[in-house]
Write a structure and sequence with these properties.
With 392 residues, this protein is α+β, with helices and mostly antiparallel strands. It has helices at 5-17, 38-41, 48-54, 127-157, 162-189, 246-249, 380-388, and strands spanning 43-45, 58-60, 63-78, 83-87, 92-95, 108-109, 114-120, 201-205, 210-215, 222-223, 228-233, 238-245, 258-262, 272-277, 289-296, 308-325, 330-331, 337-344, 347-352, 354-359, 362-367, 374-376. Belongs to the membrane fusion protein (MFP) (TC 8.A.1) family.
Length: 392
């Protein structure tokens, strides 16, 4: 059998291709070394000395009878009599007092603080009379000028005395001043900035301590008599208006205080106690909605008129629930609610909870704790700071 040269060259390649491929070594799947339980991430362990230095105290959670609550939205309002709309007493041009700040919405003011200087402008009804007055003053000025010129010439000719010349000059000076006043009054009537000898300034001051809620006019603006300039509302105290359905009105204990907190998204929400205000039913008993009112002392000025808040109302019913001191609750940066549970000697585990309501100094827990758990009260903020470097 005769083989061609091409066949001889391809034979080694065919033999190599038909050969059995070597087996690849199988690698083991990924392995986790030293696995860490999630609970260990929220556990803090102290030495006895460190625990003593932090002053940690715990309470045992138990089931108790708690007051029912109803959470609704509300809005902050100024107390009646503690709001004022500042108006212009007469037509004029507004200006700022030297060194004073520009009134702005949201800025606080003190009683007696100067808000504006109002340069009073004459009434528009004087414009027609001023036209006649201006023409008369012009004629008088021209006559006095001609008389003074004539007296000067007569004095040179020796026809009049020096006294007559002085009287003519005095008449000319008086006529010039009267004409300037008439011109200045015309400029004021037309909205200009001319000066008049009778021009006066009215000082507008804040009638009470509070915050500027609305600004209607600014500096260098000409305003009419009675035009609103700005609104000022008092901050101590403030009222909270709470709209509720008439069907829920009988369930609410209207004699008990409510808990009010801002609508904040982050942690550390401040809860303020609001006392009920005796007012008639705002919408009548035939309406679907009515409004009840509460008063906050607001000594720290944390609430402003117009602010939206969340209000926790106490109802007449009671039920069993888990309650812990409010001091035991800590908040993370996202508003999450946590407590520290003692799981062993000097060992504390941070546990997520859901706060149903806050009544006085007690927080009612919807879920997250069980009866018999020991929850940290004193030192909870310090524990949180030890774990994250922050606080409540």
């Amino acid at each position: 059998m005769k083989y061609t040269p091409q066949f001889i060259l391809l034979l080694p390649c065919l033999l190599f291709a038909c050969g059995k491929a070597p087996e690849t070594e199988k690698k083991a799947p990924a392995a986790v070394s030293s696995p860490l339980k999630e609970s260990a991430l929220t556990t803090v362990t102290f030495t006895p000395e460190a625990e003593k230095n932090l002053g940690i105290r715990t309470v045992t959670v138990d089931s108790q009878e708690v007051t029912g609550t109803l959470e609704v939205g509300g809005d902050v309002q100024a107390e009646p009599g503690q709001a004022a709309t500042i108006t212009a007493p007469m037509k004029g041009t507004l200006a700022l007092q030297k060194g004073s700040k520009v009134p702005q919405t949201g800025s606080t003011v003190k009683k007696g603080e100067v808000l504006y200087r109002l340069t009073i402008l004459p009434a528009e009804g004087d414009l027609a009379n001023n036209t006649q007055e201006l023409e008369m003053r012009r004629v008088q000025l021209e006559t006095a000028r001609n008389k003074a010129s004539r007296m000067e010439q007569l004095l040179k000719d020796g026809a009049v005395s020096e006294r007559a010349k002085q009287e003519a000059d005095a008449e000319l000076a008086a006529a010039q001043k009267a004409y300037r006043d008439a011109v200045g009054k015309r400029e004021l009537l037309q909205g200009g900035t001319g000066q008049s000898a009778n021009q006066s300034v009215f000082i507008i001051k804040a009638p009470l301590d509070g915050v500027i809620q609305q600004v209607y006019a600014g500096q260098s603006q000409t305003v009419a008599a009675g035009a609103p300039l700005l609104d000022i509302t008092g901050l101590t105290p403030v009222w909270v208006r709470v709209p509720v359905y008439m069907g829920d009105l009988d369930k609410i204990n209207l004699n008990q205080p409510a808990q009010v907190r801002p609508l904040t998204e982050n942690g550390g929400r401040a809860v303020s106690e609001a006392m009920p205000v005796s007012t008639p039913v705002a919408s009548g008993y035939t309406a679907a909605l009515t409004a009840i009112f509460y008063e906050i002392k607001n000594s720290d000025k944390s609430f402003y008129p117009g602010q939206k808040v969340m209000v926790t109302l106490q109802t007449k019913g009671k039920a069993d629930g888990m309650a812990v001191p409010y001091a035991a609750i800590v908040y993370d940066i996202n508003g999450g609610e946590w407590v520290y549970v003692q799981t062993g000697p000097q060992v504390y585990q941070r546990q997520r909870v859901q706060v149903q309501s806050v009544i006085g100094q007690q927080a009612v827990i919807a879920k997250g704790v069980e009866a018999g758990m020991k929850v940290v009260t004193d030192g909870a903020a310090e524990l949180f700071g030890t774990e994250f470097g922050g606080g409540k």
